[in-house]
Amino acid sequence: MTTHTAKSREQFDDEIEALHLRGQWRFDEDVQRISKGAPPSGEPFLWKWTAIRNVLLEACDVMPDSLRQRRNVSFVNPGLRTPNATSTITAGVQLVTPGELAWGHRHTMGAIRFGIEGDERLYTVVDGDVVPLAANDLVLTPSWTWHDHHNEMDRNGAWLDVLDVPLLMAIDQARFQPLGEMAQQQNAHNVNLSLRYAWRDVEPVLRGYGSAPASPYDDVVLEYANPVDGGPTLPTIGCYLQLLRGGFEGQTHHHSSAAIYHVVEGAGVTVCGDVELHWSAHDSFVVPSWMPHLHVNASKRDDAILFSATDRPLLEALKLYREDPPGPGVRPAPIFPGNFSREEA
Ligand code: 1HN
Questions:
Q1: What ranges do the domains of the chain cover?
Q2: Using a 6 Å cutoff on CB, does residue 68 contact ligand 1?
Q3: Is ligand 1 within 6 A of the CB of residue 94?
Q4: Cα Rg for the chain, rounded, in angstroms?
Protein backbone atom coordinates (compact mmCIF):
# COMPACT_ATOMS: atom_id res chain seq x y z
CA MET A 1 0.00 0.00 0.00
CA THR A 2 1.35 3.44 -0.90
CA THR A 3 1.26 6.28 1.55
CA HIS A 4 0.55 9.70 0.07
CA THR A 5 2.46 12.71 1.31
CA ALA A 6 1.92 16.33 0.36
CA LYS A 7 5.61 16.72 -0.29
CA SER A 8 6.70 18.07 -3.63
CA ARG A 9 9.53 16.32 -5.44
CA GLU A 10 11.70 19.44 -5.07
CA GLN A 11 11.13 19.42 -1.34
CA PHE A 12 12.00 15.73 -1.21
CA ASP A 13 15.17 16.33 -3.28
CA ASP A 14 16.20 19.09 -0.85
CA GLU A 15 15.55 16.92 2.19
CA ILE A 16 17.65 14.03 0.97
CA GLU A 17 20.37 16.44 -0.20
CA ALA A 18 20.71 17.44 3.46
CA LEU A 19 21.39 13.75 4.14
CA HIS A 20 24.09 13.80 1.41
CA LEU A 21 21.98 11.67 -0.88
CA ARG A 22 20.80 12.36 -4.43
CA GLY A 23 18.20 10.60 -6.56
CA GLN A 24 19.33 9.10 -9.85
CA TRP A 25 16.42 11.02 -11.47
CA ARG A 26 18.38 14.22 -10.92
CA PHE A 27 21.05 13.09 -13.37
CA ASP A 28 18.48 13.23 -16.17
CA GLU A 29 20.08 16.28 -17.73
CA ASP A 30 23.46 14.53 -17.97
CA VAL A 31 21.81 11.39 -19.27
CA GLN A 32 20.05 13.41 -22.00
CA ARG A 33 23.34 15.03 -22.97
CA ILE A 34 25.37 11.82 -23.21
CA SER A 35 22.52 10.01 -24.96
CA LYS A 36 23.38 12.13 -28.01
CA GLY A 37 26.93 10.72 -27.97
CA ALA A 38 29.86 11.71 -25.80
CA PRO A 39 30.14 15.49 -26.16
CA PRO A 40 33.48 16.82 -27.43
CA SER A 41 35.35 18.37 -24.56
CA GLY A 42 37.35 21.48 -25.36
CA GLU A 43 37.58 23.40 -28.60
CA PRO A 44 39.84 23.11 -31.61
CA PHE A 45 42.39 25.85 -30.94
CA LEU A 46 45.78 27.00 -32.22
CA TRP A 47 48.58 28.88 -30.47
CA LYS A 48 50.97 30.75 -32.79
CA TRP A 49 54.67 30.23 -32.11
CA THR A 50 55.48 33.95 -32.48
CA ALA A 51 52.96 34.82 -29.73
CA ILE A 52 54.18 32.07 -27.37
CA ARG A 53 57.81 33.06 -27.94
CA ASN A 54 57.12 36.75 -27.23
CA VAL A 55 55.29 35.86 -24.01
CA LEU A 56 58.19 33.68 -22.84
CA LEU A 57 60.76 36.38 -23.64
CA GLU A 58 58.73 38.91 -21.69
CA ALA A 59 58.41 36.42 -18.84
CA CYS A 60 62.22 36.50 -18.55
CA ASP A 61 61.93 40.15 -17.43
CA VAL A 62 58.64 40.12 -15.59
CA MET A 63 59.05 37.06 -13.40
CA PRO A 64 60.94 37.31 -10.12
CA ASP A 65 63.68 34.71 -9.49
CA SER A 66 61.50 32.91 -6.99
CA LEU A 67 59.06 31.96 -9.78
CA ARG A 68 61.72 30.86 -12.21
CA GLN A 69 61.69 27.17 -11.25
CA ARG A 70 59.87 26.53 -14.53
CA ARG A 71 59.36 29.25 -17.15
CA ASN A 72 56.53 27.38 -18.81
CA VAL A 73 53.36 28.84 -20.27
CA SER A 74 50.51 26.37 -20.61
CA PHE A 75 47.95 26.28 -23.38
CA VAL A 76 44.50 27.08 -21.99
CA ASN A 77 41.76 25.54 -24.10
CA PRO A 78 38.88 28.07 -24.13
CA GLY A 79 36.33 25.24 -24.11
CA LEU A 80 37.49 23.58 -20.88
CA ARG A 81 36.71 24.47 -17.27
CA THR A 82 40.31 23.78 -16.21
CA PRO A 83 43.40 25.52 -17.64
CA ASN A 84 44.53 22.59 -19.78
CA ALA A 85 44.93 21.68 -23.43
CA THR A 86 42.58 18.68 -23.24
CA SER A 87 40.65 16.95 -20.44
CA THR A 88 43.60 14.65 -19.72
CA ILE A 89 46.62 16.62 -20.94
CA THR A 90 48.43 19.80 -19.95
CA ALA A 91 50.73 21.20 -22.62
CA GLY A 92 52.84 24.31 -22.92
CA VAL A 93 56.21 25.71 -23.88
CA GLN A 94 59.19 26.19 -21.57
CA LEU A 95 62.11 28.54 -22.12
CA VAL A 96 65.47 28.28 -20.36
CA THR A 97 67.98 31.13 -20.74
CA PRO A 98 71.74 30.62 -21.28
CA GLY A 99 73.41 29.15 -18.18
CA GLU A 100 70.07 28.78 -16.41
CA LEU A 101 69.02 25.74 -14.38
CA ALA A 102 65.41 24.66 -13.83
CA TRP A 103 65.84 23.02 -10.44
CA GLY A 104 65.27 19.38 -9.63
CA HIS A 105 61.96 17.87 -8.67
CA ARG A 106 59.77 14.85 -9.36
CA HIS A 107 56.07 14.20 -9.63
CA THR A 108 53.69 11.34 -10.26
CA MET A 109 52.63 13.12 -13.43
CA GLY A 110 54.38 11.67 -16.47
CA ALA A 111 55.92 14.13 -18.94
CA ILE A 112 57.23 14.13 -22.47
CA ARG A 113 59.20 16.98 -24.02
CA PHE A 114 59.69 17.84 -27.68
CA GLY A 115 62.63 20.13 -28.51
CA ILE A 116 61.92 23.41 -30.31
CA GLU A 117 65.13 25.46 -30.02
CA GLY A 118 68.31 23.82 -28.81
CA ASP A 119 71.27 21.51 -29.40
CA GLU A 120 73.04 18.84 -27.31
CA ARG A 121 74.04 21.45 -24.72
CA LEU A 122 70.40 21.79 -23.74
CA TYR A 123 69.64 18.77 -21.56
CA THR A 124 67.52 17.27 -18.84
CA VAL A 125 68.98 15.10 -16.08
CA VAL A 126 66.56 12.22 -15.45
CA ASP A 127 67.29 10.08 -12.38
CA GLY A 128 70.93 11.13 -12.62
CA ASP A 129 71.34 10.48 -16.36
CA VAL A 130 72.02 13.29 -18.83
CA VAL A 131 69.44 13.33 -21.64
CA PRO A 132 70.06 15.90 -24.41
CA LEU A 133 67.00 17.78 -25.69
CA ALA A 134 68.06 19.15 -29.08
CA ALA A 135 65.56 20.59 -31.59
CA ASN A 136 62.93 17.98 -32.56
CA ASP A 137 64.23 15.40 -30.05
CA LEU A 138 61.63 13.66 -27.91
CA VAL A 139 62.59 13.08 -24.27
CA LEU A 140 60.59 11.11 -21.69
CA THR A 141 60.34 11.94 -17.99
CA PRO A 142 58.28 8.99 -16.70
CA SER A 143 56.21 9.25 -13.53
CA TRP A 144 58.21 9.92 -10.33
CA THR A 145 61.60 10.35 -12.04
CA TRP A 146 63.79 13.21 -10.77
CA HIS A 147 64.47 15.87 -13.37
CA ASP A 148 66.31 19.16 -13.65
CA HIS A 149 66.83 21.09 -16.89
CA HIS A 150 70.11 22.73 -17.96
CA ASN A 151 71.01 25.16 -20.72
CA GLU A 152 74.74 25.32 -21.47
CA MET A 153 74.20 27.03 -24.83
CA ASP A 154 74.78 30.74 -25.37
CA ARG A 155 71.20 31.22 -26.60
CA ASN A 156 67.74 30.45 -25.25
CA GLY A 157 66.49 26.89 -25.30
CA ALA A 158 62.81 26.01 -25.67
CA TRP A 159 60.68 22.88 -25.82
CA LEU A 160 57.11 21.66 -25.70
CA ASP A 161 56.07 20.12 -22.34
CA VAL A 162 53.19 17.60 -22.32
CA LEU A 163 52.00 16.10 -19.02
CA ASP A 164 49.06 14.02 -17.76
CA VAL A 165 48.28 16.60 -15.02
CA PRO A 166 44.46 16.88 -15.35
CA LEU A 167 44.06 13.11 -15.45
CA LEU A 168 46.12 12.57 -12.29
CA MET A 169 44.31 15.42 -10.55
CA ALA A 170 40.94 13.88 -11.43
CA ILE A 171 41.89 10.49 -9.99
CA ASP A 172 43.65 11.87 -6.87
CA GLN A 173 47.11 10.67 -7.89
CA ALA A 174 48.95 14.00 -8.28
CA ARG A 175 52.01 14.22 -6.02
CA PHE A 176 55.03 16.53 -6.20
CA GLN A 177 58.39 16.54 -4.42
CA PRO A 178 61.19 19.11 -4.71
CA LEU A 179 64.70 17.64 -4.82
CA GLY A 180 65.85 19.88 -1.98
CA GLU A 181 68.97 20.81 -3.93
CA MET A 182 69.26 22.73 -7.18
CA ALA A 183 70.42 19.79 -9.31
CA GLN A 184 70.97 16.05 -9.11
CA GLN A 185 74.34 14.36 -8.95
CA GLN A 186 75.05 13.18 -12.48
CA ASN A 187 75.73 9.45 -12.95
CA ALA A 188 79.20 8.39 -14.11
CA HIS A 189 77.96 6.59 -17.24
CA ASN A 190 76.22 9.85 -18.00
CA VAL A 191 74.15 9.85 -21.20
CA ASN A 192 70.92 7.83 -21.12
CA LEU A 193 69.78 6.84 -24.59
CA SER A 194 66.61 5.01 -23.63
CA LEU A 195 64.71 8.18 -22.74
CA ARG A 196 65.70 10.14 -25.85
CA TYR A 197 64.46 9.76 -29.39
CA ALA A 198 67.06 11.85 -31.20
CA TRP A 199 65.84 13.65 -34.31
CA ARG A 200 68.97 12.58 -36.19
CA ASP A 201 67.80 8.93 -35.82
CA VAL A 202 64.08 9.51 -36.28
CA GLU A 203 64.08 11.86 -39.28
CA PRO A 204 65.64 9.38 -41.77
CA VAL A 205 63.08 6.71 -40.74
CA LEU A 206 60.23 9.14 -41.39
CA ARG A 207 61.55 10.52 -44.67
CA GLY A 208 62.64 7.08 -45.87
CA TYR A 209 59.07 5.95 -46.25
CA GLY A 210 59.05 6.60 -49.99
CA SER A 211 55.99 6.81 -52.19
CA ALA A 212 53.95 3.88 -50.82
CA PRO A 213 50.32 4.59 -49.89
CA ALA A 214 49.93 5.41 -46.21
CA SER A 215 47.06 6.39 -43.90
CA PRO A 216 44.31 8.31 -45.75
CA TYR A 217 43.94 10.46 -42.61
CA ASP A 218 47.48 10.97 -41.37
CA ASP A 219 49.66 10.02 -44.38
CA VAL A 220 52.98 8.58 -43.10
CA VAL A 221 52.54 8.15 -39.36
CA LEU A 222 54.98 6.63 -36.85
CA GLU A 223 54.48 5.95 -33.17
CA TYR A 224 57.32 6.50 -30.70
CA ALA A 225 57.66 3.12 -28.96
CA ASN A 226 58.62 2.51 -25.37
CA PRO A 227 62.01 0.72 -25.33
CA VAL A 228 60.96 -1.69 -22.58
CA ASP A 229 57.88 -3.24 -24.15
CA GLY A 230 57.35 -1.57 -27.53
CA GLY A 231 54.15 -0.01 -26.16
CA PRO A 232 53.31 3.68 -25.81
CA THR A 233 55.88 6.22 -24.60
CA LEU A 234 53.96 6.62 -21.30
CA PRO A 235 50.94 4.63 -20.02
CA THR A 236 48.85 7.80 -20.30
CA ILE A 237 50.40 9.61 -23.29
CA GLY A 238 51.27 8.26 -26.73
CA CYS A 239 53.52 10.19 -29.13
CA TYR A 240 53.34 10.22 -32.90
CA LEU A 241 55.16 11.77 -35.80
CA GLN A 242 53.58 12.24 -39.19
CA LEU A 243 54.82 13.26 -42.57
CA LEU A 244 52.25 14.90 -44.80
CA ARG A 245 53.85 14.60 -48.19
CA GLY A 246 53.60 17.48 -50.69
CA GLY A 247 50.03 17.71 -52.01
CA PHE A 248 48.55 15.52 -49.24
CA GLU A 249 44.86 16.19 -48.57
CA GLY A 250 43.61 13.92 -45.81
CA GLN A 251 40.17 12.43 -45.41
CA THR A 252 37.94 13.20 -42.44
CA HIS A 253 37.84 10.87 -39.45
CA HIS A 254 37.31 11.10 -35.72
CA HIS A 255 38.43 9.18 -32.66
CA SER A 256 37.83 9.10 -28.93
CA SER A 257 41.34 10.37 -28.08
CA ALA A 258 42.24 14.08 -27.93
CA ALA A 259 45.54 15.38 -29.29
CA ILE A 260 47.96 18.23 -28.90
CA TYR A 261 49.90 18.82 -32.13
CA HIS A 262 53.18 20.61 -32.68
CA VAL A 263 54.31 21.67 -36.15
CA VAL A 264 57.87 20.53 -36.85
CA GLU A 265 58.08 21.92 -40.39
CA GLY A 266 55.93 23.09 -43.27
CA ALA A 267 52.53 24.73 -43.34
CA GLY A 268 48.99 23.58 -43.79
CA VAL A 269 45.50 23.52 -42.41
CA THR A 270 43.66 21.17 -40.09
CA VAL A 271 39.89 21.43 -40.41
CA CYS A 272 38.32 20.40 -37.12
CA GLY A 273 34.53 20.53 -36.85
CA ASP A 274 33.80 23.85 -38.58
CA VAL A 275 37.07 25.49 -37.47
CA GLU A 276 40.10 25.89 -39.74
CA LEU A 277 43.42 25.79 -37.93
CA HIS A 278 46.07 27.31 -40.20
CA TRP A 279 49.47 26.19 -39.00
CA SER A 280 53.13 26.79 -39.73
CA ALA A 281 56.44 25.86 -38.06
CA HIS A 282 56.40 25.61 -34.22
CA ASP A 283 52.70 26.42 -33.83
CA SER A 284 50.74 24.11 -31.51
CA PHE A 285 47.09 23.14 -31.77
CA VAL A 286 44.48 20.91 -30.18
CA VAL A 287 42.15 18.44 -31.85
CA PRO A 288 39.53 17.56 -29.18
CA SER A 289 38.20 14.04 -28.64
CA TRP A 290 35.49 12.81 -31.04
CA MET A 291 35.74 15.80 -33.40
CA PRO A 292 35.82 15.09 -37.11
CA HIS A 293 39.04 16.48 -38.56
CA LEU A 294 41.29 16.37 -41.60
CA HIS A 295 44.83 17.56 -42.37
CA VAL A 296 46.00 19.27 -45.56
CA ASN A 297 49.57 20.13 -46.54
CA ALA A 298 49.44 23.66 -48.02
CA SER A 299 52.37 22.89 -50.31
CA LYS A 300 52.12 20.70 -53.39
CA ARG A 301 55.87 20.11 -53.24
CA ASP A 302 57.30 20.41 -49.72
CA ASP A 303 56.81 17.98 -46.85
CA ALA A 304 55.01 19.03 -43.68
CA ILE A 305 55.81 17.25 -40.39
CA LEU A 306 53.56 17.14 -37.33
CA PHE A 307 54.41 15.79 -33.89
CA SER A 308 51.44 14.86 -31.68
CA ALA A 309 50.78 13.56 -28.18
CA THR A 310 47.44 11.96 -27.29
CA ASP A 311 45.64 10.07 -24.52
CA ARG A 312 45.09 7.07 -26.82
CA PRO A 313 47.08 4.63 -24.58
CA LEU A 314 44.92 5.58 -21.62
CA LEU A 315 41.73 4.97 -23.60
CA GLU A 316 43.11 1.71 -25.00
CA ALA A 317 43.90 0.49 -21.48
CA LEU A 318 40.30 1.27 -20.51
CA LYS A 319 39.04 -0.39 -23.72
CA LEU A 320 37.48 2.95 -24.69
CA TYR A 321 39.52 3.80 -27.78
CA ARG A 322 37.30 4.18 -30.85
CA GLU A 323 37.92 5.57 -34.29
CA ASP A 324 35.53 6.15 -37.14
CA PRO A 325 35.88 5.12 -39.89
CA PRO A 326 37.62 2.17 -38.21
CA GLY A 327 41.40 2.24 -38.66
CA PRO A 328 43.14 -0.10 -41.11
CA GLY A 329 43.85 -2.42 -38.16
CA VAL A 330 47.59 -1.77 -38.42
CA ARG A 331 49.44 -0.02 -35.62
CA PRO A 332 51.61 2.82 -36.88
CA ALA A 333 55.19 1.68 -37.37
CA PRO A 334 57.06 2.11 -34.06
CA ILE A 335 60.24 4.10 -33.60
CA PHE A 336 62.53 3.17 -30.73
CA PRO A 337 64.83 5.52 -28.85
CA GLY A 338 68.61 5.61 -28.82
CA ASN A 339 70.27 2.38 -29.93
CA PHE A 340 67.28 0.18 -29.20
CA SER A 341 65.57 -1.99 -31.77
CA ARG A 342 62.49 -4.10 -31.06
CA GLU A 343 64.69 -7.25 -30.83
CA GLU A 344 67.01 -5.73 -28.23
CA ALA A 345 64.17 -4.25 -26.20
C1 1HN B 1 56.59 20.54 -14.79
O2 1HN B 1 57.05 19.91 -13.70
C3 1HN B 1 57.46 20.86 -15.84
O4 1HN B 1 59.32 19.70 -14.90
C5 1HN B 1 57.00 21.51 -16.95
O6 1HN B 1 59.70 20.94 -16.58
C7 1HN B 1 55.68 21.87 -17.07
C8 1HN B 1 53.43 21.91 -16.17
C9 1HN B 1 52.56 21.61 -15.18
C10 1HN B 1 52.98 20.96 -14.03
C11 1HN B 1 54.30 20.59 -13.88
C12 1HN B 1 58.93 20.48 -15.76
C13 1HN B 1 54.78 21.56 -16.04
C14 1HN B 1 55.22 20.90 -14.89
A1: 45-192, 201-335
A2: no
A3: yes
A4: 23
